[in-house]
From TrEMBL:
Transmembrane segments: none annotated. Homodimer. It comes from Allgaiera indica. InterPro entries: RmlC-like (IPR000888), RmlC-like_jellyroll (IPR014710), RmlC_Cupin_sf (IPR011051). The active site is at H62, Y132. Belongs to the dTDP-4-dehydrorhamnose 3,5-epimerase family. GO terms for molecular function: dTDP-4-dehydrorhamnose 3,5-epimerase activity. It catalyses: dTDP-4-dehydro-6-deoxy-alpha-D-glucose = dTDP-4-dehydro-beta-L-rhamnose. Pathway: Carbohydrate biosynthesis; dTDP-L-rhamnose biosynthesis. Its EC number is 5.1.3.13. This is dTDP-4-dehydrorhamnose 3,5-epimerase.
Length: 182
């Protein structure tokens, strides 16, 4: 696998190194030893999938607070998404900054989201399916959200925003959030 650091410290793009043959290809998409060697969480306790019918659908920006803070490993298994991260870690040099990676079934890339970083995505095609692993169990008591359109963050969403959940319409702004401490 190829690990490429993203602009937010501790966030990575993880690409497979496919081996092709007459049947198609084979590639490793997770390896506890390689993730551990890069200092990444290598133990997943939950795996989720979401299907999004329309292009432009936006889910985010979501995170969990300690002691349920979770790292995520995100892949797009149908359609296409722009996967987006916002740094919410107290004292981080990139606090409040965002970065994004386009994920598709064809590029087979994954995004590693570290603890303390909010995550969301917008679908770029209809019927986009997102599959992701979590390092901590879902804990509604520790869930947090950040407004997808906070001007102080300035995420450049590529399509008109569609299908926001009621929760995501009402998430707080960065200035209203308590930064996340480990
Ligand atoms: C995330 C989650 C939700 N749920 C429930 C709560 C609710 O009734 C229903 C849908 O939940 P939500 O509206 O929060 O789903 P969604 O907006 O897709 O939330 C997800 O968004 C992306 C961007 C992430 O990063 C994920 O961690 C997660 O927060 O499923 C679970 O039972 N387990 C879970 O792990």
């Amino acid at each position: 696998m190829i690990f490429a650091p993203l602009s937010l410290q501790g966030a990575w793009r993880v690409d497979p190194e496919p081996r092709g043959d007459a049947r198609g290809l084979f590639a490793r998409i997770f390896c506890a030893e390689e993730f551990g060697a890069h200092g990444l969480v290598a133990r997943w306790v939950q795996m989720n999938v979401s299907l999004n019918r329309e292009a432009g659908t936006l889910r985010g920006m979501h995170f969990q607070r300690p002691p349920a803070a979770d790292a995520k490993l995100v892949r797009c298994t149908a359609g296409a998404i722009l996967d987006v991260l916002v740094d919410l870690r107290a004292g981080s040099a990139s606090f409040g900054a965002w970065c994004a990676v386009e994920l598709t079934p064809d590029n087979r890339s994954a995004v590693y989201v570290p603890q303390g970083v909010a995550h969301g995505f917008q679908t770029l095609a209809p019927d986009s399916e997102v599959t992701y692993c979590h390092s901590a169990a879902y804990s509604p008591a520790h869930e947090g959200g950040l407004r997808y359109d906070d001007p102080a963050v300035g995420i450049d969403w590529p399509l008109p925003v569609a299908n926001l959940s009621p929760r995501d319409q009402n998430n707080p702004l960065l200035a209203e959030l308590e930064p996340i401490t480990a």
